[in-house]
Amino acid sequence: MQSSRVWLFHGGSFDNLKGRGFLRITDGGKYDQQQCTFDHDSFLGRHIGKALLFAWLEARASRGPNLLQSLQTLQTQQSPNHLAEWKMLQKCREFFRHVPGGVEVRDAPHASLPYDIEIRLSACPDMPWQRVQLKSASWTGRSHLAYVRVCKKRAMQTMPYDEADFDFLLVSPPQNMRPSTSKNNTATCPLDPEPTDRWRYFYFVEMEELVNSGVVSSERKRVGGVTGLSLDFQDTSFLRRGFRPLRFLRWRLDTSFPAVAGERFARLLSRGARGKSATCQQLEKIGGVLPLQCEGRQETQPSTPIRNEHTNFAEITMSLPAQAKLLPNPRCTSLPQIDSQLPSLGSAALTLEARESAPRDPPLCTGIDGLTLRDRYSLERAAFHLLRQSFPRSEHFDGLEEPAVPLPPFARVDLAVRPFGCKEDLWLPVQVKSTAHRSKWQKATSALWDFHGVRGYEGVVVCISLERPVHEKEVPERPKVWVFFGSRFDSFCSPGRLAITEDGKHDTEATRCSFGEGRFEGSHIGRRLSSIWFQAKKGLGVCRLRDLYTLQIQQSPNHLAEWRMLQNCLELFKSVPGGVDVREAPWPFDPHDIEIRLRHASHHFKKVQLKSAIWFSQSRVRPGVAFVNFNKKVRGVVKAYEEGDFQFLLVAPPKNLGALSQKPPKEPADAEKDPLVIIEKWQSARYLYVIPEKFLIDEGVVASKEKASCGLKGFLLDFSSMPVAKKDTRMARLLQWRLNTSDKQGFGKQLKKLFDED
To answer: What's the pTM?
Structure first.
């Protein structure tokens, strides 16, 4: 009986071989000189283990033809397809660590089998091994959908997978760059630095769903199958109803919440192992409406306070912790967040996110003729009040709560809710659209309700009709309410008009809700929102929960800058002896921003307009001189402020130092003339202007009918410590109203004196 033989060669020995490198070893021939053995005591040659160790030692000493390689280099020496699959498997193993109890993974017995790995839950040793086919999606063309090849080769022929080939399909996100973003870029290695959210979404689809969708062939159901599949890996979905990729969204795992995704993965895997069919309807039933309990649930009634028309913010902000000093709700009367809440995002990233999430215009109601702006805001407040009445806990409902630190008034969404008592920072974004009653459109054969501006929201959109009587003789009806996913309106033309016809496609059992507990009125709006929250927490459906901070910073750049400025002012107001009371203007469209009065005094609230100065082109020539954009919009027309609009103008120092940036001076002596150097030397940021309105009227800045003055839409202020304004000019006369904030006590006394004298 002959023993096994083994030879050891250096890889470069075969460079002269032709073609694919066929090696023939003849007994006693030239290639038979490198023979080794598996036996330590054999006379036929060296032991193979010792030979390999000797080759490693030589390479370590930089002798011989061999080179040592790092493990990562050896692992990545694969074809592009195999490398993508290997990298995907590593990401899957990382994700499996978050599955409760862990997951056991083993390779397929043979590489030619139509599946890649076998898995089962570690906590269930009796569970049969589930066969999983791994696929990696890829971006093709300019479509917002990623393409997945779901085919196998048999006798060199490409064909769809068969129903018996595997149990689950696990698809990873695309690893290649999108063609639209890589036009001017060179090809990159898959191991290059990548976006942190690239591996966010995975699809874990059961075979039964693939058969029902016509992806995998089945003789039992007479389905031919396909060789390719498109899936959606984006946050915002633009899929139309009935489209196959939209149906597969229910099988998508969001790994940004690893614990939630791991729990859902275990549930799908265990149900598939029991042989149960995981249809979409079953997923909905299991995922969202079960009465899951949140940590920290209390037995007390949830507090959902209704805002007064005026809110005292000075007292409220003092009681909040320093890291969470935001000002209270409701939407139309809340103040901006404190400046310290925004340290982690750079100005460029913050501006970009705010620009992408700029708030929409005030909601319009075309069913009401001659509705003024004040009427629209009154209608919106009434809808908010009605919706909040459905949040408290009842015998049939665990209740919803809003954040103790509310959303800013110009945030993208109106409300944020979560189950009462839940301590996780996960909130459901809610946008409210309202109308007073059904439309007056006479041609409609059925009742019709119109809502505008429903497009562009990621959470849920709640449409409320207060059902107020159009004529005095009409009997008031119960308010009506509908709930939609925001992505449903992405295909609407901007700004998004929604017409709900009674018993039409938008007025269904799935969307119709009620404010009461009636059996035939639709599900309770509070319970419906709670159900959507639980579904989103489990990664089901199209909604995604957001942390409170993300919802708070979704503002336009201008509102975000005003938001931060106001918080800085509130911090300065704390230095006023005796304190001050601060509240917002009654309406967002009023020509003043806040109202202030000295605390513990018989003073009335004084209307204050807030402005922030900016550096502009002349600031290069006259460092320290800034421009104040001083105008208001009335029915879309820019006008100067008029007498009576406010009582004090508060102007903060400029923040846009980027407008003064210039090329470095050629000579060192010119460095002292750099505007940035001068402004930093003069400490312009320490000054704040508080100017009475009557002085601005005398200077012709504010329009006045009595003095026949048209006013100005902008003027200049001096923020330099060494005034550059000439005497007998407006800028020089305004210096008397400039306060130095570096001396907090002196600033507080000066501010109190101004309010006392007025």
So the answer is: 0.49
